[in-house]
Amino acid sequence: MNIINLKRTNSDDLDFRNLVSQLDADLRERNGEMMDIYDQHNVIEKIDTVVIAYLNNQPAGCGCFKPFDAEAVEIKRMFVQPAARGNAISKKVLAELETWARELGFIYTVLETGAKQVEALSLYPKSGYVLIAKYGPYVDLPDSICFRKSLKLNA
User: Fold this and answer.
1) Structural domain span for residue 108
2) Would strands 58-67 and 50-55 be described as parallel, antiparallel, or unpaired?
3) Domain-located, residue 155
4) For 31, which DSSP code?
5) Domain count, the chain
6) What pTM does this model have?
7) How many H-runs (helices) and E-runs (strands) does the chain carry?
8) Are 91 and 53 in contact (CB under 8 A)?
9) Interacting residues of 61 by C-beta distance below 8 A, sequence separation 6+
10) Spatial separation of the C-alpha atoms in residues 86 and 91, rounded to whole Å
11) pLDDT digits (tens, 9 = 90+) for 94-128
């Protein structure tokens, strides 16, 4: 039986940095040269709200968020290693990020994903996210798809 543990940490965590390197390689493989445009929006800043998932004590997935505005956070850098997929890791990481954002007083989340991230396009609607108009740096990017979710418990 697989054991999944979640850890709240920050962007200095070496496991997070390694997972993000794998994410960047995965995105580059899926999207090719288009990543030259997207890479500028995927820079790891100093982020204090990172979640890492461990599958049988090995880092297997991650995600984080940063403030978007006074009421919302933006979910970023969601990734699960290919070999670890199928264990509901992304769902658990996303739920933990939402719980953490709620604890900090935020009332909704936003996020952007790409048209070729089929796993994400399945996960987010199943997790209560609704499509919204493209925002910020993604407005003119043709493959960007943006979502929003209320963090209100009765929403």
Assistant:
1) 4-150
2) antiparallel
3) no
4) H
5) 1
6) 0.91
7) 4, 7
8) no
9) 19, 52, 53, 55, 78, 79, 80, 81, 84, 89, 90, 93
10) 10
11) 999 999 999 999 999 999 998 888 899 999 999 99
